[in-house]
Amino acid sequence: MAVDSAMPSPLGPPACEKDAKALQFIEETTRNADAVQERVLAEILSRNAETEYLKRFKLHGATERDTFKSLIPMITYEDLQPEIQRIANGDRSPILSAHPISEFLTSSGTSAGERKLMPTIQEELDRRQLLYSLLMPVMNLYVPGLDKGKGLYFLFVKAESKTPGGLLARPVLTSYYKSDHFKTRPYDPYNVQTSPNEAILCADSFQSMYSQMLCGLIERHQVLRLGAVFASGLLRAIRFLQLNWTQLAHDIRTGTLNQKITDPGIKDCVTRILKPQPELADFVAKECSKDNWEGIITRIWPNTKYLDVIVTGAMAQYIPTLDHYSGGLPLACTMYASSECYFGLNLNPMCKPSEVSYTIMPNMAYFEFLPHEPNSAWSTRGSAPKLVELVDVEVGKEYELVITTYAGLYRYRVGDILRVTGFHNSAPQFHFVRRKNVLLSIDSDKTDEAELQKAMENASEILRNFNTSVVEYTSYADTKTIPGHYVIYWELLVKDPANSPSQEVLNRCCLAMEESLNSVYRQGRVADNSIGPLEIRVVKNGTFEELMDYAISRGASINQYKVPRCVNFTPIMELLDSRVVSAHFSPGLPRWTPERRR
Ligand code: AMP
Description:
Elements: H1 17-31, H2 33-47, H3 52-56, H4 65-71, H5 77-88, E1 101-111, E2 114-121, H6 124-142, E3 150-154, E4 161-162, E5 168-170, H7 172-177, H8 180-183, H9 197-200, H10 205-218, E6 223-230, H11 231-254, H12 264-273, H13 278-288, H14 296-300, E7 306-310, H15 319-326, E8 331-332, E9 335-337, E10 342-345, E11 358-360, E12 366-371, H16 377-381, E13 388-389, E14 398-404, E15 412-424, E16 427-435, H17 449-464, E17 468-478, E18 485-494, H18 503-516, H19 519-526, E19 535-539, H20 543-553, H21 570-578, E20 580-585
Parallel strand pairs: 1-5, 3-6, 6-7, 7-8, 18-19
Antiparallel strand pairs: 1-2, 4-5, 9-10, 10-11, 11-16, 12-13, 12-14, 14-15, 15-16, 17-18, 19-20
Helix pairs in contact: 1-6, 10-11, 11-13, 11-15, 17-18
Bound molecules: adenosine monophosphate.
């Protein structure tokens, strides 16, 4: 029941007192966006006045925006590499932040093939927690009764490593799930989950997924929402069910736990809820043994009101598959965040994926916006660009996000391109357009054109022994199967047909490409099983010329035509696929360990 209007919210009637406070916080913070931004910047600059970085630019303790903007340069991760390396090597002096760096968060964005290391400080956990605490109050405005059931969320921790100086390096969500903020969160009837903490915190991904799925099946009638962080993660869970339902049904039938589950914490809590339930086991077996899995989510979890997964940006490619498995349940994209900083939330989470806009919360960091004009004079000649304040962005325009954080990133380019769709009070709302320079992505991997080119070059080395070269290539992220995989189309020039590369050699080329791709890709292949083996499809000679003819017939200029290094337009895919002469898959796994190569 909605509480009465003691604390009315323009967003709608809050579901409970706690929600009322959260909604009021959103209202106040967005109404005073500019003042909040001014305060945030002043706080960051005054507490960090004595850091080596700010002293280098002679800020002399100034905290006002104009001085900051005139003295501090806009930077990328690469500019900060020397400082980050020193911190990683154990330098504890206040280089970027006056507060001690508590750990590094390993971003899915990479630099020289390795995950970027984002320094963070202890109190950032509170800020992340604060943003999380706003999500359910907003959701409760749109979906009543979520306190009457549970959420089935597939959440995982990932491998950790230590820097040479002894700081932990791990993904932001691993850090959050392992924190007391998550582990000892107070009971909230609107946010009860079927997955026990022990299952989420188990580093073995099979045991973790198995036990989360088992608990979700046992409590199938209580489940009101189903989710994972990204769409790819939820689909991986569905695939897991396809592969493991027989054993899961067996456990439910007999009330005994699969021997492969050895984690004592998981065994303890799962055996407490696992009782012989032959009827449920029959039901699971009946549904899962059907050839057609269309609508499987709503068949197994009939009370699901929505899927809670991010399907904006690169994840949009999974919308049709999610619709297939869920019979078109609403897809809720609730928040926009990164390892560097959590940015904001979707105030209308039940809207269509194509209409999702994220409202940046002005208390999270100091935000600036670089007008995104790829061909403008400054971006080619390097003259100083003019950054725009949070409250001054213009509806319809695109910007690159630039942040200054409490943890010590100053005017840092995140690499995301956003388009302003409107305002909530004076805080702008953004459509996530894309991340810069990403060509291929299946899960959290992001492969850019330079990485693909390098991988191509390394693989084509193998062909040299066969007097063969790759004349042209393009690529495609194939997400029709789960997990998805990279497809690379090759047109070859075989100079000595008597010594042409064999099937086995071309398979090896697939693996050579994988070995050259960045560590996030390789982790997805090896540890997360979220990316399938890379495929090379060799196409007939002349195919790329046909591709050019096609582009020109559609109006491309013959002088400016360049082979697209990634394709996803159906007629082009059809053309390429109709010219395939052979297909090859990576025969093994590339090398990957949690330790960094550099
Ligand atoms: P990471 O640093 O690995 O946490 O990745 C953060 C990046 O993921 C962001 O900078 C975005 O490019 C992307 N991302 C995060 N949240 C969203 C979202 N809601 N929609 C689209 N892309 C997102």
